[in-house]
Amino acid sequence: MHVLDRAITILKKIAVRLFWCPRCNVPVLGRRCGICDSPTLPIKLTPPGDVRPAIGAEYREVYSLLKNYVGSRWREVIPRRKVVLLNKVQYPDMADEVIIDGQVVFHRFYDLKRGWRIKPLYPLVHEMTEKRVGYYAVVDLPKVVRGYEVHRDKVLEANLPDRRSGEYLAVVTRNRSTYGVAKVIRSGRLRVVRSWTRRLLSWNLKDPSWRDVVRANEWRLLKMEQEAVNFIKTTYSQHKLPVFISFSGGKDSLVTYYLVYKALGKVPILFNNTGIELPETVRYVRDFARRNDVELIEADAGEGFWRGIKVMGPPARDFRWCCKVAKLAPISREVKKLFPNGALSFVGQRKFESATRALSPRVWRNRWMPEIIAATPILTWTALDVWMYILLRKLLPNKLYYLGFDRLGCWLCPASEIGEFENIKRIHPSLWERWVSFLERYAERQGFPKEWVKYGLWRWIKVPRDIRRELGFSDLKYKERRGADVDITYDGKKALLRINSPDIERIKRFLKTSNFRGSVVVKGEWVKLVSKEGKVSYSDIKAVIRASFCVGCYLCATYCPSHAIIKEENRVDVLEDVCTSCNNCNRLCPIAEYTLLAKHLLRKRSVESF
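Request: output the structure for the sequence above.
Response:
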């Protein structure tokens, strides 16, 4: 099964069951409303259905987008409500289902070439065609189905968008039995992309507040709170370890802190300052610790990321060297220093965030730090649960959520969508300009086209097919070369590496870590390894890369059992007389690991004499 198909299957299995109370006009995560005790109606959502409230800038953007799409008469088609929900859906870039009055009204999605746009769904299509507003067409056909092309002579009445705009339009048959969404294609024909049989449609008269939503779900929230508090107490009593909270400055870690506080009282919070966190988040975390009088452990990556990109190039979804340099390395240093005998970490991880997290147990040992036991009290909470709980307990979330962000973290993360980067451009133009300037210089050196920066193609080494199709690129005519600037030829017995200005003595010291036995010959930019034992290992090659391209993340030093790795300014060195050749450092080094990954492991061919 394809990785994406497997992820979709997993997310379908855990999909959220969201309901709506027609009397109170509020979302309810249960079959009866907590206000009026009436039965609720199910809402069909795209899995996993982890809906979130549209608040602040996102709320304004939803209605602004609707106004731009429909025109000045937009209030005639969709009522303006205080409670609007957003549900992420799969598109080439960022996209959401927009839910108003218990109905999925339209998709808002980010078009890589045109920016934010709308794809109307049945409620909006119905109202646009009934009231003749926005882009619409009435067609002289008994019905329309997906994939059908409507010729111009069958269009009775219309307000059509320009074909080049790529806008969607609402379609209705003359007898109003079928409604659809279409696009204008060649010769002015309309290609139907989705259709529905006519059904009853009405809008609710009530405009409830988020306070009403909390009231309708309060029974559920209190039950989940008690379960989480009991889980925290039980987990703590089972392990009897020092406790800290992994605190990102986001909504999930905020709720996790409050639950742990209710269960155990004040405990330290650990914040990973990756060096590419937004300033608002750094301030929020520090202010939070000060306001609540809790100990703040700051695992600071400093300039590690920015040193790393000079060696590795930009990170990508399939090339995440940054996570080890900016996250694992600084967190490991702090945890090993403060909790040498282990600790219990409570984290704000939820299963609806990804297929990987959906399969994660509630308590586990950290793969990279096995002395740390991690536990998540809110594994089964939805994003809506989290936000309702914040409102119930009057917690103060990071203000970035009100500025248009729905998730927080590294602001230039390659896992982000271009639509999300629009917020960075708007709020922190100088930060974004710094990143774009680096990408442009990098692209120029590599000979990449302008589209590589413009459309965010740097986020992949291998650009996905749907992105290429969306942009109209059947083939990308450039060759990716990321990772350290080294050419490697390897035949199993010998290895030849091209490195700018190799330091022979430093390389020999690092080769002690892999227990290399053989000769090292340097001629100009070329380093040749010949093993006495008849085989050059991958670890030997990694040791040479480490010696030549270390960026000083100090991950190797943290895990060196013999303390043979010494820290220097922005890099490390090896004490040969102390090193036991355990090879830990070569296995851990992100620069070596991801450089070999970027080079498609190694070119296995004969190493000629030089």
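The longest strand covers residues 103-111.
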